[in-house]
Specification:
Layout (H helix, E strand, L loop, with lengths): L1 E3 L2 E3 L7 H5 L23 H7 L3 E5 L6 E6 L4 E8 L9 H6 L5 E8 L1 E6 L5 H18 L18 H20 L4 E9 L2 E8 L7 H16 L5 E4 L14
Parallel strand pairs: 9-10
Antiparallel strand pairs: 1-2, 3-4, 4-7, 5-6, 6-7, 8-9
Helix pairs in contact: 2-4, 5-6
């Protein structure tokens, strides 16, 4: 019995290194392995299915060091999880796998979306393939994205920078993709104690529905995923918008 990436397989020849090396983040070149031939190498069905999972990489238009990965499978249900360092990945099998990629600096994930921040000058075209492989290997492992002990682990005295990062991840991952459909965007200006200050831009700037968007969309989502935040304040000068509803 041989150990393969924290999983035991009955035959060490059932997994081929070239098979793993062909995984791509965009899923355009799914790996394949011969099967059925007498004496030929085979791949465990669960691993073969996981390694064919489609993953689409979407580099950020505003931050060249960030990229979103849309995965064809649910990774994390419930609240958004943000892991800011390798040391913080202790209770997250998915994060540990992602941090095996040397360029990865921080990760966050919820539902079928993984956001990765990288360091170094290597382009996303190269780094994304390694991250796609890491995600697929995690799916093949059958492990949850976070351990049961994760929710029970106290955050302690979270730094202002960490809290800012968590709120920003929620905005970038869960809020802005929907708001963009209406030509708008939400920018996080800062965090003070339990309050987040945001600015609405694009189609949301000066829109008569801005208050509804803030309270029923932005604030509700942030409070759900970042319980340390209790209030969200709109710092937008709506009087200067295209349709300023504060104008006299």
């Amino acid at each position: 019995m041989a150990l393969f990436r924290n999983r035991y397989v009955s035959n060490p020849h059932t997994v081929r290194a070239p098979f793993l090396g062909h995984a791509r983040a965009d899923g355009d070149e799914s790996a394949s392995a011969p099967g059925g031939a007498a004496g030929g190498p085979t791949v465990p069905p669960e691993m073969e299915a996981a390694m064919k999972t489609r993953i689409i990489a979407q580099p950020s238009a505003t931050n060249l060091d960030e990229c979103r990965f849309m995965v064809g499978a649910t990774l994390q249900e419930g609240r958004l999880v943000r892991i800011g360092s390798r040391e913080q990945a202790e209770h997250s099998p998915l994060a540990r796998r992602l941090f095996e990629v040397p360029q990865v600096r921080a990760v966050s994930f919820v539902g079928n979306v993984v956001t990765v921040a990288k360091e170094g000058d290597e382009p996303w075209q190269e780094v994304a393939r390694s991250i796609g492989t890491a995600i697929r290997l995690h799916l093949a492992s059958g492990l949850p994205a976070v351990d049961e002990s994760f929710e029970a682990t106290p955050n302690g005295d979270m730094s202002k920078e960490e809290l800012f990062g968590r709120v920003k991840d929620v905005i970038d991952t869960l809020i802005n993709p929907g708001v963009a459909g209406h030509g708008g965007f939400v920018r996080l200006l800062g965090v003070e104690k339990d309050t987040a200050f945001v600015q609405l831009g694009g189609g949301c700037h000066g829109c008569g529905m801005a208050t509804f968007t803030l309270k029923q969309g932005v604030e509700k989502t942030i409070l759900q995923h970042v319980p340390e935040i209790k209030h969200v304040e709109d710092a937008t000068d709506h009087s200067s918008g295209v349709n300023p509803y504060y104008a006299s």
